[in-house]
Write a structure and sequence with these properties.
Layout lengths: L2 E10 L2 E11 L4 E6 L5 H8 L7 E10 L2 E2 L5 H7 L4 E4 L13 H12 L4 H14 L5 H6 L7 H13 L5 E5 L7 H18 L2 E5 L3 H7 L2 E6 L2 E7 H6 L4 H8 L3 E2 L2 E2 L3
Parallel strand pairs: 3-8, 3-9, 6-7, 7-8
Antiparallel strand pairs: 1-2, 1-4, 4-5, 9-10, 11-12
The chain binds adenosine-5'-triphosphate (ATP).
Length: 262
């Protein structure tokens, strides 16, 4: 098992926000966490990557990553884990980029922080990675500023950076919801393609049960900080048990009598 979260509880200040969450994932598997806004989805993945906001605290449970309880990590161990073994993509990863520095210089700096590559080697490797994310003219993109790219292109740069070190686990927080529907589908496909090649497991947080159904092997449905349903995605989509999951599915449009979730 790559990752095993058991009975995870998280509080912000005195308020318990997430209670007794369990999940597990093997190498290369994709798990989606769905649920309404404020149900605690982001909090769960932030806890896994050790990056809760400072008032956030894990108050119970265990997070085993490759058999080790990461909650006992030292800051140096977190540093080693983040960026190389585990990485994160946000809703607009473009926002993470420095607006007044060219993409290439930021990408090269990121690579050299975690590896002994020379500047030239890192630049070549960065360009290759941009090409894998189907970005046209990677040489030009390296010379561009973030504002010169479209939202979809910036998001691809974000995924390319996150995937550079072939992490074992990618945490993706609403990675496509800032994009238009066509670009969403493309970015999701490219992300899956690249993860499949590297056997990277993904935990994707999305409010879109359609994206979840299309991408994931396993599904967790959260409501008010608790898991109301979890299991194989196909099983849950075809035979939802909880009233809340049924509600989420009922909101997905039907095409020709079939639920459009792909
Ligand atoms: N830094 C914080 N301090 C206090 N409360 C917070 C903080 N961050 C989030 N919360 C609260 O925790 C709850 C869960 O938030 P979280 O972002 O995990 O939910 P979510 O399901 O990811 O929602 P969304 O889909 O809107 O991103 C919310 O009620 C939110 O108000």
């Amino acid at each position: 098992m790559l990752i095993e979260v058991s009975e995870l509880s998280v509080s912000y200040a005195e308020h318990e926000i997430v209670r007794n969450v369990n999940l597990s994932l093997d190498a290369g598997e994709i798990l989606a966490i769905v649920g309404e806004s404020g149900s605690g989805k982001t909090t769960v993945i932030r806890a896994i990557l050790g990056c809760l906001p400072h008032e956030g605290r894990v108050t119970g449970g265990r997070i085993l990553f490759e058999g080790r309880n990461v909650l006992e990590n030292t800051p140096a161990e977190w540093c080693r884990l983040c960026g190389t073994k585990a990485a994160m993509v946000f809703q607009d990863s473009g926002n993470m980029l420095d607006p007044i520095r060219r993409i290439g210089s930021q990408f090269v700096e990121y690579i050299r922080e975690h590896s002994p590559l020379t500047k030239q080697e890192a630049a070549r490797a960065a360009e290759d990675m941009l090409r894998k994310m189907h970005l046209p003219n990677p040489e030009n993109i390296m010379k561009s500023y973030p504002f010169e790219l479209s939202g979809g292109m910036r998001q691809r740069v974000g995924v390319a950076m996150a995937m550079f070190f072939k992490p074992r686990l990618l945490l993706a927080d609403e990675p496509t919801s800032a994009l238009d529907v066509t670009t969403q589908a493309q970015v999701v496909k490219e992300m899956m393609e690249i993860c499949r090649k590297d056997k990277t497991a993904i935990i994707i947080v999305t409010h879109n049960i359609g994206v979840a159904a299309y991408m994931s092997d396993k599904l967790i449905v959260m409501q008010a900080g608790r898991v109301v349903e979890s299991g194989g995605t196909d099983e849950i989509i075809s035979r939802p048990q909880s009233a809340y999951t049924k509600e989420l599915l009922a909101a997905v449009p039907q095409v020709g009598g079939k639920r459009y979730v792909g």
